[in-house]
Amino acid sequence: MRRFAWQDQTDEQDTGIDVTPMLDVVFILLIFFIVTASFVKETGVEVTRPTADTGTSREGANIVVAIDNQNRVWIDQRQVGPHAVEAHVARLHARNPQGSVVIQADAASNTETLVTVMDGARAAGVPDIAIATRSGR
């Protein structure tokens, strides 16, 4: 039996699946989820919050300011002076203008320090300020 030239070619062509486009899509999805994820903000200091029976839950706070029992102010795990709160909050608020400020004041902290921090946050242009409490119920 005579074979033609085109019959000599094997039918065993590359039958594997090209996964390069799939890897590109997975990589793009990974970047998308990393960029859009909201991370839990931690203050870096242990605070004993006061109890409140009328407290409500709040979502979406992106700036957390802590005041410890020695009246030291903490933002982004760094200690700052009470009068420097305005500059730090303004910088963080510029990143997310829709965010709010939550102040975690220790039960043993001064009211004066709390008011100074609240004034600094309002002076930075943040209208939505809350004080974190524990549920009293």
Largest β sheet strand count, sense and barrel closure: 5 strands, mixed
Kindly state the number of beta strands: 7
Number of discrete domains: 2
Structural class: alpha/beta
* Approximate shape: elongated
| CATH architecture grouping of the largest domain | 2-Layer Sandwich
- For this structure, the CATH topology of the largest domain is Nucleotidyltransferase, domain 5
Query: How much beta, percentage-wise?
Result: 15-25%
Mean of the pLDDT scores?
Answer: 78
What is the terminal-to-terminal distance?
93 Å
Uncertain stretches: none
> What is the N-to-C succession of helices and strands?
HHEEEEHEHEE
Helical stretch count? 4
Order of adjacent strands in the largest pleated sheet? 4-3-2-5-6
**Oligomeric state of this protein:** single chain
- What is the name of the CATH class of the largest domain? Alpha Beta
The radius of gyration over CA amounts to 28 Å
Q: Portion of residues in helices?
A: 25-40%
Report on this structure.
With 137 residues, this protein is α/β, with parallel strands linked by helices. The protein folds into 2 domains: 32 residues, no CATH class; 85 residues, Nucleotidyltransferase, domain 5 (2-Layer Sandwich), CATH 3.30.420.270. 33% of the residues lie in helices and 19% in strands. The strands form 2 sheets. Strands 4-3-2-5-6 form a 5-stranded mixed sheet, covered by helices on one side. A two-stranded parallel sheet has the order 1-7. Strand 5, helix 4 and strand 6 form a beta-alpha-beta unit. The chain starts with a helix and ends with a strand. The mean pLDDT is 78.
